[in-house]
Design goal:
heterodimer, A: alpha+beta, hypothetical protein PF0899 fold, 3-stranded mixed sheet, 3-stranded antiparallel sheet, elongated, B: alpha/beta, Rossmann fold, 7-stranded parallel sheet, globular, disordered N terminus
Protein backbone atom coordinates (compact mmCIF):
# COMPACT_ATOMS: atom_id res chain seq x y z
CA UNK A 1 0.00 0.00 0.00
CA UNK A 2 2.63 2.51 -1.09
CA UNK A 3 -0.13 4.49 -2.84
CA UNK A 4 -0.52 6.56 0.33
CA UNK A 5 3.19 7.51 0.18
CA UNK A 6 2.71 8.45 -3.46
CA UNK A 7 -0.35 10.57 -2.58
CA UNK A 8 1.56 12.33 0.19
CA UNK A 9 4.28 13.20 -2.33
CA UNK A 10 1.55 14.45 -4.67
CA UNK A 11 0.03 16.65 -1.97
CA UNK A 12 3.49 18.11 -1.22
CA UNK A 13 3.81 19.04 -4.89
CA UNK A 14 0.33 20.54 -4.91
CA UNK A 15 1.14 22.61 -1.84
CA UNK A 16 4.29 24.01 -3.49
CA UNK A 17 2.43 24.69 -6.70
CA UNK A 18 -0.42 26.48 -4.91
CA UNK A 19 2.04 28.72 -3.09
CA UNK A 20 3.90 29.55 -6.29
CA UNK A 21 0.68 30.25 -8.18
CA UNK A 22 -0.92 32.15 -5.27
CA UNK A 23 -3.88 29.78 -5.43
CA UNK A 24 -6.59 29.73 -2.78
CA UNK A 25 -7.97 26.36 -3.73
CA UNK A 26 -7.17 23.39 -5.90
CA UNK A 27 -10.24 22.05 -7.67
CA UNK A 28 -8.99 19.30 -9.97
CA UNK A 29 -5.85 17.24 -10.33
CA UNK A 30 -5.02 15.19 -13.42
CA UNK A 31 -2.57 12.30 -13.21
CA UNK A 32 -1.31 9.90 -15.82
CA UNK A 33 -0.56 6.44 -14.46
CA UNK A 34 0.62 3.52 -16.57
CA UNK A 35 0.22 -0.15 -15.64
CA UNK A 36 4.01 -0.50 -15.32
CA UNK A 37 4.36 2.37 -12.85
CA UNK A 38 3.79 -0.03 -9.97
CA UNK A 39 0.93 2.07 -8.67
CA UNK A 40 -2.74 1.03 -8.76
CA UNK A 41 -5.05 3.88 -9.88
CA UNK A 42 -8.00 2.71 -7.73
CA UNK A 43 -5.81 2.64 -4.62
CA UNK A 44 -4.47 6.11 -5.47
CA UNK A 45 -8.04 7.37 -5.75
CA UNK A 46 -8.83 5.94 -2.31
CA UNK A 47 -5.67 7.29 -0.69
CA UNK A 48 -5.89 10.80 -2.15
CA UNK A 49 -8.68 12.18 0.12
CA UNK A 50 -6.77 10.86 3.15
CA UNK A 51 -3.53 12.55 2.10
CA UNK A 52 -5.33 15.72 1.01
CA UNK A 53 -7.35 16.19 4.21
CA UNK A 54 -6.76 19.59 5.81
CA UNK A 55 -4.47 20.71 2.99
CA UNK A 56 -5.04 23.11 0.12
CA UNK A 57 -5.95 20.09 -2.00
CA UNK A 58 -8.83 19.01 0.26
CA UNK A 59 -11.94 18.38 -1.81
CA UNK A 60 -10.09 18.47 -5.14
CA UNK A 61 -11.33 16.05 -7.77
CA UNK A 62 -8.71 13.50 -8.77
CA UNK A 63 -8.74 12.33 -12.38
CA UNK A 64 -6.44 9.55 -13.45
CA UNK A 65 -5.67 8.85 -17.09
CA UNK A 66 -4.55 5.40 -18.07
CA UNK A 67 -1.55 4.91 -20.33
CA UNK A 68 -1.32 2.07 -22.83
CA UNK A 69 1.64 -0.27 -22.74
CA UNK A 70 3.50 0.30 -26.03
CA UNK A 71 6.87 -1.06 -27.08
CA UNK A 72 9.23 -0.32 -29.96
CA UNK A 73 11.18 -3.28 -31.32
CA UNK A 74 14.94 -2.89 -31.65
CA UNK A 75 15.03 -5.64 -34.24
CA UNK A 76 12.21 -4.87 -36.69
CA UNK A 77 11.39 -1.30 -35.60
CA UNK A 78 7.65 -1.92 -35.21
CA UNK A 79 5.76 -0.07 -32.48
CA UNK A 80 3.06 -2.28 -31.01
CA UNK A 81 0.76 -2.73 -28.00
CA UNK A 82 2.01 -5.06 -25.30
CA UNK A 83 0.91 -6.51 -21.98
CA UNK A 84 2.51 -5.56 -18.65
CA UNK A 85 3.70 -9.13 -18.17
CA UNK A 86 4.92 -9.61 -21.74
CA UNK A 87 6.77 -6.81 -23.48
CA UNK A 88 7.78 -8.76 -26.58
CA UNK A 89 7.34 -7.22 -30.03
CA UNK A 90 3.82 -7.70 -31.41
CA UNK A 91 5.30 -7.76 -34.92
CA UNK A 92 8.23 -10.17 -34.92
CA UNK A 93 8.11 -11.55 -31.36
CA UNK A 94 11.62 -10.43 -30.40
CA UNK A 95 12.08 -9.64 -26.71
CA UNK A 96 14.54 -6.82 -27.31
CA UNK A 97 12.14 -3.90 -27.14
CA UNK A 98 12.09 -0.45 -25.57
CA UNK A 99 9.10 0.78 -23.64
CA UNK A 100 7.43 3.72 -25.38
CA UNK A 101 4.69 4.22 -22.81
CA UNK A 102 3.09 2.42 -19.88
CA UNK A 103 5.32 3.30 -16.90
CA UNK A 104 4.15 6.89 -16.39
CA UNK A 105 3.53 8.20 -12.89
CA UNK A 106 2.97 11.84 -13.71
CA UNK A 107 1.22 14.88 -12.38
CA UNK A 108 -0.11 16.25 -15.68
CA UNK A 109 -2.07 19.35 -14.72
CA UNK A 110 -3.85 21.13 -11.88
CA UNK A 111 -6.94 23.33 -11.89
CA UNK A 112 -6.93 26.00 -9.25
CA UNK A 113 -8.70 29.14 -8.04
CA UNK A 114 -6.89 32.29 -7.11
CA UNK B 1 14.54 13.79 -16.28
CA UNK B 2 15.25 17.29 -17.39
CA UNK B 3 17.91 18.73 -15.07
CA UNK B 4 16.36 22.16 -15.17
CA UNK B 5 12.77 21.52 -14.27
CA UNK B 6 12.42 17.83 -13.46
CA UNK B 7 9.79 17.41 -16.14
CA UNK B 8 9.30 14.20 -18.08
CA UNK B 9 8.47 14.86 -21.70
CA UNK B 10 8.06 11.78 -23.85
CA UNK B 11 6.59 10.94 -27.22
CA UNK B 12 3.58 9.57 -25.37
CA UNK B 13 2.80 12.61 -23.25
CA UNK B 14 4.12 15.53 -25.28
CA UNK B 15 0.64 16.34 -26.56
CA UNK B 16 -0.56 16.92 -23.00
CA UNK B 17 2.04 19.59 -22.57
CA UNK B 18 1.53 21.18 -25.97
CA UNK B 19 -2.11 21.65 -25.13
CA UNK B 20 -1.13 23.79 -22.19
CA UNK B 21 1.95 25.76 -23.08
CA UNK B 22 5.07 25.83 -25.17
CA UNK B 23 7.80 23.79 -23.60
CA UNK B 24 11.28 25.01 -24.32
CA UNK B 25 14.31 23.34 -22.90
CA UNK B 26 17.07 25.56 -21.71
CA UNK B 27 14.24 27.33 -19.93
CA UNK B 28 13.18 29.35 -16.99
CA UNK B 29 12.44 26.83 -14.24
CA UNK B 30 9.05 28.00 -13.08
CA UNK B 31 7.71 28.93 -16.46
CA UNK B 32 8.34 25.42 -17.72
CA UNK B 33 7.26 23.64 -14.59
CA UNK B 34 3.91 25.31 -14.44
CA UNK B 35 2.14 27.25 -17.09
CA UNK B 36 0.59 30.34 -15.67
CA UNK B 37 -3.06 31.18 -15.72
CA UNK B 38 -4.24 34.65 -14.78
CA UNK B 39 -7.27 34.18 -12.55
CA UNK B 40 -7.29 30.47 -12.02
CA UNK B 41 -7.79 27.67 -14.47
CA UNK B 42 -5.53 24.85 -15.52
CA UNK B 43 -1.81 24.71 -14.84
CA UNK B 44 0.34 22.22 -16.69
CA UNK B 45 2.90 20.45 -14.56
CA UNK B 46 4.11 17.15 -16.04
CA UNK B 47 6.27 16.14 -13.16
CA UNK B 48 6.89 12.70 -11.77
CA UNK B 49 4.83 12.15 -8.65
CA UNK B 50 7.90 10.86 -6.85
CA UNK B 51 10.01 13.82 -7.95
CA UNK B 52 11.01 14.74 -4.37
CA UNK B 53 12.13 11.16 -3.67
CA UNK B 54 14.07 11.11 -6.94
CA UNK B 55 15.93 14.28 -5.95
CA UNK B 56 16.88 12.89 -2.57
CA UNK B 57 17.96 9.63 -4.22
CA UNK B 58 20.23 11.60 -6.55
CA UNK B 59 21.88 13.20 -3.51
CA UNK B 60 22.42 9.77 -1.95
CA UNK B 61 23.99 8.59 -5.21
CA UNK B 62 26.35 11.59 -5.23
CA UNK B 63 27.33 10.69 -1.70
CA UNK B 64 28.08 7.07 -2.67
CA UNK B 65 30.07 8.24 -5.68
CA UNK B 66 32.09 10.68 -3.60
CA UNK B 67 33.43 7.71 -1.64
CA UNK B 68 33.59 5.37 -4.62
CA UNK B 69 31.13 3.00 -2.95
CA UNK B 70 28.95 0.70 -5.04
CA UNK B 71 25.37 0.70 -3.68
CA UNK B 72 23.23 -2.37 -4.41
CA UNK B 73 19.52 -2.58 -3.69
CA UNK B 74 18.48 -6.17 -2.90
CA UNK B 75 14.80 -6.81 -3.52
CA UNK B 76 12.60 -9.91 -3.31
CA UNK B 77 9.62 -11.51 -1.61
CA UNK B 78 9.98 -12.04 2.13
CA UNK B 79 11.95 -15.18 2.82
CA UNK B 80 13.72 -15.63 -0.51
CA UNK B 81 17.11 -15.54 1.12
CA UNK B 82 18.42 -11.96 0.94
CA UNK B 83 20.05 -12.02 4.36
CA UNK B 84 21.38 -15.56 3.85
CA UNK B 85 22.92 -14.44 0.55
CA UNK B 86 24.60 -11.54 2.33
CA UNK B 87 25.96 -13.85 5.03
CA UNK B 88 27.43 -16.17 2.40
CA UNK B 89 28.81 -13.19 0.46
CA UNK B 90 30.49 -11.75 3.56
CA UNK B 91 31.95 -15.16 4.44
CA UNK B 92 33.44 -15.41 0.94
CA UNK B 93 34.57 -11.82 0.40
CA UNK B 94 34.96 -10.38 3.89
CA UNK B 95 38.74 -10.41 3.60
CA UNK B 96 38.73 -9.01 0.08
CA UNK B 97 36.00 -6.34 -0.05
CA UNK B 98 34.92 -3.95 2.67
CA UNK B 99 31.17 -4.41 2.95
CA UNK B 100 28.46 -2.39 4.72
CA UNK B 101 24.77 -3.24 5.02
CA UNK B 102 21.55 -1.30 5.54
CA UNK B 103 18.69 -3.59 6.52
CA UNK B 104 15.04 -2.73 5.97
CA UNK B 105 12.27 -4.53 7.82
CA UNK B 106 8.92 -3.60 9.30
CA UNK B 107 10.08 -4.69 12.75
CA UNK B 108 13.04 -6.23 14.65
CA UNK B 109 16.83 -5.85 14.56
CA UNK B 110 17.21 -9.53 13.70
CA UNK B 111 18.72 -9.13 10.25
CA UNK B 112 21.21 -6.43 11.25
CA UNK B 113 22.27 -8.64 14.17
CA UNK B 114 22.90 -11.54 11.77
CA UNK B 115 25.09 -9.31 9.58
CA UNK B 116 27.00 -7.80 12.53
CA UNK B 117 27.70 -11.34 13.73
CA UNK B 118 29.73 -11.72 10.54
CA UNK B 119 31.87 -8.72 11.53
CA UNK B 120 30.35 -6.25 9.08
CA UNK B 121 28.81 -2.86 10.00
CA UNK B 122 25.02 -2.97 9.65
CA UNK B 123 22.29 -0.45 10.34
CA UNK B 124 18.70 -1.56 10.73
CA UNK B 125 15.84 0.58 9.46
CA UNK B 126 12.52 -0.47 10.95
CA UNK B 127 9.77 0.98 8.83
CA UNK B 128 6.83 0.20 11.15
CA UNK B 129 4.08 -0.21 8.62
CA UNK B 130 5.80 1.10 5.50
CA UNK B 131 6.14 -1.58 2.86
CA UNK B 132 9.27 -0.16 1.20
CA UNK B 133 12.39 1.90 1.81
CA UNK B 134 12.61 5.38 0.32
CA UNK B 135 15.47 7.77 -0.36
CA UNK B 136 14.80 9.77 2.80
CA UNK B 137 15.15 6.70 5.03
CA UNK B 138 18.45 5.85 3.32
CA UNK B 139 19.69 9.42 3.78
CA UNK B 140 19.09 9.10 7.53
CA UNK B 141 20.63 5.64 7.68
CA UNK B 142 23.80 7.01 6.06
CA UNK B 143 24.43 9.01 9.24
CA UNK B 144 24.96 5.65 10.93
CA UNK B 145 26.91 3.87 8.21
CA UNK B 146 30.30 5.46 7.54
CA UNK B 147 30.95 5.16 3.80
CA UNK B 148 34.63 6.01 4.02
CA UNK B 149 36.65 2.89 3.31
CA UNK B 150 33.71 0.80 2.06
CA UNK B 151 33.78 -0.90 -1.34
CA UNK B 152 30.14 -1.95 -1.46
CA UNK B 153 26.99 -1.05 0.46
CA UNK B 154 24.11 -3.50 0.30
CA UNK B 155 20.65 -2.11 0.95
CA UNK B 156 18.38 -5.01 1.83
CA UNK B 157 14.92 -3.69 1.04
CA UNK B 158 11.72 -4.70 2.78
CA UNK B 159 10.63 -8.12 1.53
CA UNK B 160 7.95 -7.22 -1.01
CA UNK B 161 7.76 -7.76 -4.77
CA UNK B 162 5.63 -4.67 -5.42
CA UNK B 163 6.32 -1.39 -3.62
CA UNK B 164 10.13 -1.21 -3.39
CA UNK B 165 10.40 -1.16 -7.19
CA UNK B 166 8.81 2.31 -7.34
CA UNK B 167 11.29 4.14 -5.11
CA UNK B 168 14.79 5.13 -6.19
CA UNK B 169 17.13 5.02 -3.20
CA UNK B 170 20.25 6.30 -4.95
CA UNK B 171 21.61 2.82 -5.61
CA UNK B 172 23.65 1.92 -8.69
CA UNK B 173 22.30 -1.57 -9.20
CA UNK B 174 19.13 -3.52 -8.43
CA UNK B 175 19.46 -7.21 -7.70
CA UNK B 176 16.16 -9.10 -7.56
CA UNK B 177 16.07 -12.53 -5.94
CA UNK B 178 13.64 -15.26 -6.94
CA UNK B 179 13.72 -18.35 -4.75
CA UNK B 180 12.74 -21.67 -6.27
CA UNK B 181 9.91 -22.11 -3.75
CA UNK B 182 8.07 -19.11 -5.21
CA UNK B 183 7.17 -20.37 -8.68
CA UNK B 184 8.86 -19.70 -11.98
CA UNK B 185 6.14 -17.36 -13.30
CA UNK B 186 6.90 -14.62 -10.77
CA UNK B 187 8.48 -12.28 -13.37
CA UNK B 188 5.24 -12.33 -15.38
CA UNK B 189 3.16 -11.74 -12.24
CA UNK B 190 5.34 -8.90 -10.90
CA UNK B 191 6.61 -7.17 -14.04
CA UNK B 192 7.36 -3.82 -12.39
CA UNK B 193 9.80 -5.44 -9.98
CA UNK B 194 11.52 -7.71 -12.48
CA UNK B 195 11.81 -4.99 -15.13
CA UNK B 196 13.90 -3.09 -12.57
CA UNK B 197 16.47 -5.88 -12.11
CA UNK B 198 20.06 -5.38 -13.24
CA UNK B 199 20.56 -8.99 -12.20
CA UNK B 200 18.05 -11.73 -11.41
CA UNK B 201 19.34 -14.20 -8.89
CA UNK B 202 17.55 -17.55 -8.62
CA UNK B 203 18.13 -18.64 -5.01
CA UNK B 204 17.80 -21.80 -2.90
CA UNK B 205 18.71 -23.97 -5.88
CA UNK B 206 19.56 -26.79 -3.46
CA UNK B 207 15.79 -27.23 -3.13
CA UNK B 208 15.36 -27.89 -6.87
CA UNK B 209 15.91 -31.57 -6.10
CA UNK B 210 12.60 -31.66 -4.22
CA UNK B 211 10.71 -28.86 -6.01
CA UNK B 212 10.42 -30.09 -9.55
CA UNK B 213 7.65 -27.57 -10.35
CA UNK B 214 10.25 -24.80 -10.64
CA UNK B 215 12.14 -24.58 -13.92
CA UNK B 216 15.02 -22.09 -14.06
CA UNK B 217 14.54 -22.08 -17.84
CA UNK B 218 10.90 -21.03 -17.56
CA UNK B 219 11.80 -18.37 -14.98
CA UNK B 220 14.44 -16.99 -17.33
CA UNK B 221 11.97 -17.04 -20.24
CA UNK B 222 9.38 -15.09 -18.21
CA UNK B 223 12.13 -12.61 -17.29
CA UNK B 224 13.20 -12.15 -20.94
CA UNK B 225 9.56 -11.57 -21.94
CA UNK B 226 9.78 -8.30 -19.98
CA UNK B 227 12.33 -7.06 -22.54
CA UNK B 228 14.94 -7.97 -19.95
CA UNK B 229 18.52 -8.47 -21.13
CA UNK B 230 20.04 -8.45 -17.63
CA UNK B 231 21.95 -11.55 -16.55
CA UNK B 232 20.29 -14.40 -14.66
CA UNK B 233 22.36 -16.37 -12.16
CA UNK B 234 21.42 -19.31 -9.95
CA UNK B 235 22.86 -19.83 -6.49
CA UNK B 236 22.50 -21.81 -3.32
CA UNK B 237 23.86 -19.83 -0.39
CA UNK B 238 23.55 -23.03 1.64
CA UNK B 239 25.71 -25.32 -0.50
CA UNK B 240 27.74 -22.63 -2.23
CA UNK B 241 26.69 -23.83 -5.69
CA UNK B 242 26.82 -20.97 -8.19
CA UNK B 243 28.16 -18.58 -5.59
CA UNK B 244 31.43 -18.01 -7.44
CA UNK B 245 29.57 -16.57 -10.46
CA UNK B 246 27.64 -14.16 -8.23
CA UNK B 247 30.89 -13.09 -6.55
CA UNK B 248 32.51 -12.54 -9.95
CA UNK B 249 29.60 -10.28 -10.98
CA UNK B 250 29.97 -8.38 -7.72
CA UNK B 251 33.73 -7.94 -8.12
CA UNK B 252 33.32 -6.63 -11.65
CA UNK B 253 30.61 -4.18 -10.52
CA UNK B 254 32.79 -2.91 -7.66
CA UNK B 255 35.69 -2.40 -10.08
CA UNK B 256 33.43 -0.63 -12.58
CA UNK B 257 32.14 1.69 -9.84
CA UNK B 258 35.70 2.61 -8.80
CA UNK B 259 36.52 3.47 -12.40
CA UNK B 260 33.34 5.53 -12.81
CA UNK B 261 33.78 7.35 -9.52
CA UNK B 262 37.39 8.22 -10.38
CA UNK B 263 36.18 9.64 -13.70
CA UNK B 264 33.41 11.63 -12.02
CA UNK B 265 30.71 9.50 -13.62
CA UNK B 266 27.80 7.58 -12.19
CA UNK B 267 25.21 5.03 -13.23
CA UNK B 268 21.57 4.51 -12.36
CA UNK B 269 19.83 1.17 -11.93
CA UNK B 270 17.97 -0.47 -14.79
CA UNK B 271 14.67 1.33 -14.90
CA UNK B 272 15.00 5.02 -15.43
CA UNK B 273 12.14 7.40 -15.80
CA UNK B 274 11.31 7.81 -19.45
CA UNK B 275 12.31 11.46 -19.39
CA UNK B 276 15.88 10.56 -18.52
CA UNK B 277 16.23 8.45 -21.61
CA UNK B 278 14.64 11.11 -23.74
CA UNK B 279 16.79 13.96 -22.53
CA UNK B 280 20.00 11.95 -22.62
CA UNK B 281 19.35 11.25 -26.29
CA UNK B 282 19.22 14.99 -26.76
CA UNK B 283 15.80 14.72 -28.33
CA UNK B 284 14.17 17.48 -26.34
Amino acid sequence: MHELSVCQALVDQLRDLATRESAQRITRVLLRVGPLSGVVPDLLAHAFPIAAAETIAEGAALAIEDARVRVRCRTCGAETDAEPGSLVCGGCGDFRTDLVSGDELLLVSVELER
Amino acid sequence: MCNTCGCNVTDANRHLLDEHHDHHHGHDHHAAEAGTAAAGGSVAVLKRLLDANDHEAAHNREHFDEYGVLAINLMSSPGSGKTRLLEATIEALGGELRIGVIEGDLETENDAARIRAKGVPAHQITTGTACHLDAHMIHHALHHVPLRGLDVLFIENVGNLVCPASFDLGQHRNVTLLSVTEGDDKPAKYPVMFRAADLMLITKTDLLAVIDEFSPGRATHAFRALAQESPVLAVSAKTGAGLETWLAWLRSEVAAQKTRAAAGETIRPKVQSDGVALHSRGAA
